[in-house]
Each structure stands twice: as structure tokens, then as C-alpha cells.
């Protein structure tokens, strides 16, 4: 698979070029345009793998759709343009056998060599991390495409690192995180507008997004007509 | 495509590249003319918005058989390339133009010589020199005006004329996004609802009833049709990518910005779904209806669309108290 990330950073899309027989699994609704030599399938499971309805339901809780779209090229040199719904960047992450934990709505597409599964991070993290209840766990090897709201920036963590809730895109599973308060005192943390934060420890790469979708939504919501 | 004009009568022609160097009779005046060589870096070719400079290009090896150990991290970081800040500029018979701040906040500036005019949709003007006069009005009679209205544009077209010396007008679209320039040479360009931004003299805008195609496409029932000889600028939410269709191509109906009339199109469900077969992709796959283009020509697609933003923001609205 060849890829190109176009029109970065706010309106980024990934342009994928597939050879006959190659296949890619995309988030539902991600397809913008494509050549005609694709076979498109909608399933609840990973391509060629297990999973089925249970994994599908778990993905649904992870902020992803119950269904996945598989695009398989039936002719050589087929192009597919995919992009997320919100303004923001797209990055390519080459998987080489490790595991990457992706925040629910940041998963865009992955090659067939990658197994995607929703994972439960525990009640505390689910409630306070500012992210979804579930995370998408990607493992295996191949090309993985992630999207963010706003810009995306990598941080190589050795030791400890603090990220505000709602800004996590993905992290390698060699990192652990726990929910903690930003300052010394809990009240001070909340008054400072930071409240709870995610404290990472270990060694690995972490991807953060510059903007936090719920913050933007809470800014817009009250200004709109009630539904 | 080679674009040229007859040296004796000025008739515009567009012919395919393989006719370069051939001699032919002009349809208008009968003079023998020679088809020029394709101009690779002609200013106009450049002015057409190609996909912006790729920020990250790569090819990944096939996934099979890579026994590399659990890598501590990807070998390369996502390259932090600044946004494509290329300026598209050019000069036409009607004015000189520049498109800055692409693709997110595209701003068109048009330089007018005394007497030159530019026509724009209402409220597109961001700033202008005092020498430019603005006149709002209906243009092209009742039929054209209504056609435009059905095509999702305003009834009113603003005319900007440089009267007291040369002047400059800058235009920006209502939403953040990209702007693309296109030169019409006697051909027709179809624009999605609301995509039109401004045009020069010599361009006619009207509505084009799409029939059932429009009904199913999720977009308007009427496309905006631009024809004539002149310059046109169109905009979208998100970036605009140009695709040269040589045979067939599929675009999600919500992402079409414009296309040349040399292309035929039909609204269809994704191929791979045969009649009576798996209808799952249509109902659950999210990319139910697509527009399938065939023929030869250019189609412009936008990389984001407003409905997905709206459906995202909707849950944040307050609920009505009862």
C-alpha cells in the first residue's frame, strides 16, 4: 500500500494506492472518493479474522461504528481517499508487531494485518479521562491511520508525562496511565481549569491532539437553539 | 488537454494532447491553424488547484513476514511540515488574481484595471480599495436569476468595477476552506450548491435541473451551471482536491464541489453491491450513495463536509425544557 497525506493540517485526507488483492479496513463514512476497482464489504468483524458482533458492539461503545468497511482492490493501482469528519490532521503509524491504544474516535483506517479490538480501561479512567469508555487496541503489523481534532503531536515519554484529559489520540501500550489531579490540591486543580489529568509513565510514544472536541462542543452548544 | 485560440479570429479551442502539432481549419473563420504543443508549466495550468503539496509521502512495505520485535516506536515521527502555503496566482484577460492562505483560509485577491469588472456572490467581499465601486443587482434576467437561486446561490450578484483608477478586491468564502480557480473556454462547469464564489465577464450562471439524480444525491436538486468564456472561482469547506478522471471514478455525493461537463455522472450505490445482493453497505456502511463519473474530465472534491460537523455538534445543543 502506498499512502500520501494531503492538505494538512486542518483538512487532511489520506490518499491510499492499493495493488490488486490488497485490502484496507476503514471507519464507516470515511470514504470520500475512490477508483472503481474496489470491492466494498461491510461487516462487524476484522477482515479474515474473528470478532463478529461482540467486537462490533465493543467498538460501538468505543465511539466507533458497529460496522467496518473493507475496501479490497480488484484491479492494480486503485486509489482511495479517506478522511475524518471533523477538521484536523491525519497521521500514518507503521505498526511493527507492537500494540497501540487508540482513543475511540481517532481510528481512521488500518491494513488487514492489524487486529482492532475495543478495550475497557477501567471505570475511573472511563469516567474521568475525558475520552470514551473504550479504547481501540490495534495490534499486529501494517499501516495504521489515525485522525485528530486539531493538530497532532508526538511525545516520546521516558519516565512520566502529564496530558490533559481529552487530548490523547493514541499511545503505545508500553505506557501506562492513571488519572490524577493536575496540581497538589484538588481544589486548586479544578480552579485552574485543568481538573483531572492523565499521568503517563513508562517508555513509549504518545500522540496528543492540540484541541479537545468536548471543549469545543461545550463552547458551541449553549449558543445553539435547543433541540 | 491543450487550450489555444485561433490567431485570426480568437475562437477558443480545447483539444486532447495527441493532436499537438497537427494542422486544422478553424471552425469559425476557416483559417488554417496549427495546434500548439501542450504547455506543461503554463500559468493557467498552474493556476488550477492541484492537490496541495503532499506533506507526508511514503510507501509502506507489505505487512507480511516482518518479524521485527515489538518496536519501541515508529522509526520516523510524523513529519512536522508546515501547511501548504503556496500562493496560486495568475493573470487573465479580465484581471490579475492571487489565492493566498490555502487550503484552510483561502483568500482571493483580484486586481482590477480601470473599467475591469468582477462579479461575486453577496457577502464574499472581505475588503477592497476605495477606487472600486460595488453595485448589487439581478443579473441575466428572470430565468437566470431563478436558476441561480435554485442552484443554491443568491438572487443578487454583486458587481465590482474599478472606476477611479486601478483597485484591488479581496474575497473570502463564508466558511473556512479552499478556493479553486477555473478558466472556462466555451465549455461548461457544473458546481455544487453554494460552491460559486466569483466570476469574470463572459461567464453565464444558470441552474441545471438534475432530475431524479439530484433527489438521491443528498445534495440539491439543481446544480449551478457555469458556461462561457472567462474565469470562475469556487470554494468549499475543507480543502479542494482535483482529480483527473480518465475512465471512471466514484465520489461520495456530499463531497463533490464541481466537475466538467465532459463527464457523465450517475448516482448509484457502491459497486460491489449487486442488486438483491448485500445491501448492508448501503444502510450500515455509511457510504450508501455515491456519484459515479465516467468519461474524461476533471472533478473537484472537498476533503471535509459540513453535515458531518453538524451531526457532531448536535448532541452538544441544550435540550428544550418542558
- The span between the termini of chain B is 62 Å
Strand content of chain A: over 45%
Range of strand content of chain B = 35-45%
Principal-axes geometry of chain A comes out as globular
Note the quaternary state here.
heterodimer
CATH topology of the largest domain in chain B: Double-stranded beta-helix
Secondary-structure element pattern of chain B, one letter each? EEEEHEEEEEEEHEEEEEHEEEEEHEEH
Largest sheet of chain A: 11 strands, antiparallel
Give the beta-strand count of chain A.
Answer: 15
Instruction: List the secondary-structure elements of chain A in sequence, H or E.
Output: EEEEEHEEEEEHEEEEHEH
Mean pLDDT of chain B: 74
Count of DSSP-assigned helices of chain A? 4
CATH C-level class of the largest domain in chain B is Alpha Beta
Radius of gyration of chain B: 23 Å
CATH-defined architecture of chain A? 4-Layer Sandwich
CATH-derived architecture of the largest domain in chain B: 4-Layer Sandwich
- Ranges of chain A where pLDDT stays below 50 over 5 or more residues in a row are none
Total helical segments of chain B:
5
Measured on Cα atoms, how large is the radius of gyration of chain A? 18 Å
Structure write-up:
The complex is a heterodimer of chains A (227) and B (322). Chain A has helices spanning 52-61, 123-128, 186-191, 213-220; strands at 2-6, 13-18, 23-27, 31-34, 38-43, 68-73, 78-82, 90-103, 107-111, 114-120, 134-147, 152-164, 168-172, 175-181, 196-209. Chain A is mainly beta and 227 residues long. Chain A has a single domain (2-223), classed as Double-stranded beta-helix, CATH 3.60.160.10. In chain A, strands 3, 5, 6, 8, 9, 10, 11, 12, 13, 14 and 15 form an 11-stranded antiparallel sheet that branches. Chain A has a 4-stranded antiparallel sheet with strand order 1-2-7-4, with no helix packed on it. The relative contact order of chain A is 0.17. The mean pLDDT of chain A is 81. Chain B is mainly beta. The longest helix of chain B has 10 residues, at 141-150. Residues 40-85 and 272-285 of chain B have low confidence and may be disordered. Chain B has helices spanning 43-47, 141-150, 212-217, 280-283, 306-313, and strands spanning 2-5, 12-15, 23-25, 32-34, 56-59, 88-91, 96-100, 107-112, 117-120, 125-128, 132-137, 157-162, 167-172, 177-191, 196-199, 203-209, 222-237, 240-245, 248-252, 256-260, 263-269, 289-295, 297-302. Classes of the chains: A mainly beta (227), B mainly beta (322). The interface between A and B is large, with 72 and 72 residues. Strand 4 (31-34) of chain A pairs antiparallel with strand 19 (248-252) of chain B.
